[in-house]
Known about the structure:
Oligomer: heterodimer
Largest sheet of chain B: 6 strands, mixed
CATH class of chain B: Mainly Beta
CATH superfamily of chain B: Immunoglobulins
Number of helices of chain A: 0
Low-confidence stretches of chain B: none
Number of helices of chain B: 0
Largest sheet of chain A: 7 strands, mixed
Distance between the termini of chain A: 36 Å
Helix content of chain A: under 10%
Radius of gyration of chain A: 13 Å
Largest interface: A-B, 25 and 21 residues
Number of strands of chain B: 11
Number of domains of chain B: 1
Order of helices and strands of chain B: EEEEEEEEEEE
Number of strands of chain A: 11
CATH architecture of chain B: Sandwich
Low-confidence stretches of chain A: none
Radius of gyration of chain B: 13 Å
Mean pLDDT of chain B: 94
Distance between the termini of chain B: 41 Å
Strand content of chain B: over 45%
Structural class of chain A: mainly beta
Amino acid sequence: DTEVTQTPKHLVMGMTNKKSLKCEQHMGHRAMYWYKQKAKKPPELMFVYSYEKLSINESVPSRFSPECPNSSLLNLHLHALQPEDSALYLCASSIGAGANVLTFGAGSRLTVL
Amino acid sequence: GIQVEQSPPDLILQEGANSTLRCNFSDSVNNLQWFHQNPWGQLINLFYIPSGTKQNGRLSATTVATERYSLLYISSSQTTDSGVYFCAVVRSNYQLIWGAGTKLIIKP
């Protein structure tokens, strides 16, 4: 299995909703990432988990809450989002440290109304 | 910090044409990657190429680390090559610095 699977593919939510994005990989990778991508821009790093521990938080607002229940799963919990948070959210994984070859999921496209 | 610049920003070609995309970076790096993002948002890692030349089918990449640039060659373009091509370099563990991308449109 050489894939990173993200669900849902599309999500529409109101500013008072609570929702979650999910990411799963079974490649034995020990680093997992959340990126945010706005239209016509490169991805922006949000969080990195290494060996299931949060290694990097790029000063992301607390309305985004990451969780890594085990080495194969990565969640992003969303609460009280703003319309400007609408974007493509990408999950990625790599074998280990050093941002070695990243494998990306297909993304979850989020719209906040 | 390290700056990554890609050129050209946009490129429109007919199917079958060849193209060269460039990535310049402002400081020495240990890790450079090329990605293709298709129109539906899927990002695919094309090459991990800190130096030297690699080839994969119709695509090849060359990085000249001493001169701080990398080139991505696409030969005999197909419509499925359309999308945005990004290069990215490693700043530190886990963290990539991305170029702004080259948007490629291949017309049938």
